[in-house]
């Protein structure tokens, strides 16, 4: 389980907190969704969990161990981070995914690392692209490659920052289904930031509503309601009940 208590962070020593006094929990096999407008601290929070930014206050434990004192190697073997903006070196798709195995080998990749790369490429329907330069992939292919690289190290916790941004509808559905399967069929935990509430409703188990660097609310699908949306985004949406999850449409102003 991931447990965060009273976490605060900023980008400078004397700068204001970007996230402040954030506390939450995420169980194994759950998908947690960070919701909120741009600039409220969702990406910052994920960077702290990924070890890219040291918090000023608070604690983070994962599997009952203090995450802030893990070695880089231990962290990369357990946790994978997929940033919002992806960039790849001029390597083949296969070589890029192999980079995700670095925490497990030294100077040279082992046979088991090559096998792991082959398996993940086939699993994500990227095997036919294994010889193509990563820099030549389409946006959707690049996003799937980024996830493949993240999964190559067999992490138990995935941190995904707006992973569906700029994906077309088909790729978006494929990506969401794949992430859902990672949690529900393989028992991985996922923390993801999303903007689209309908995507969030389809994907998430627990939701964290953020505004001005703090948590306004957290809970299950019962929190996906017009009241929380208005408080978080300042926008009036109308809830439409679905078979398994709610969805939302713009609410016409009353005359």
Can you tell me about this structure?
It is a single chain. The chain is 31% helix and 25% strand. Strands 6-7-8-3-9-10 form a six-stranded mixed β-sheet, sandwiched between helices. It is built from eight helices and twelve strands. α3 (93-99) runs parallel beside α5. It has 255 residues and is an alpha/beta fold.
Short description:
This protein has 255 residues and is α/β, with parallel strands linked by helices.
Q: How big a fraction of the residues is strand? A: 25-35%
Report the major sheet. Answer: 6 strands, mixed
Give the fraction of residues assigned to helices. 25-40%
Rounded to the nearest angstrom, the radius of gyration is 19 Å
What attributes does this structure have?
single chain; 255 residues; alpha/beta; 8 helices; globular
Layout of secondary structure:
Blueprint: E1 2-9, E2 19-26, E3 31-35, H1 42-50, E4 57-62, E5 65-66, H2 72-78, E6 79-82, H3 93-99, H4 111-123, H5 139-151, E7 157-161, H6 169-184, E8 189-193, H7 197-203, E9 206-211, E10 214-219, H8 226-233, E11 237-241, E12 246-250
Parallel strand pairs: 3-8, 3-9, 6-7, 7-8
Antiparallel strand pairs: 1-2, 1-4, 4-5, 9-10, 11-12
Helix pairs in contact: 3-5
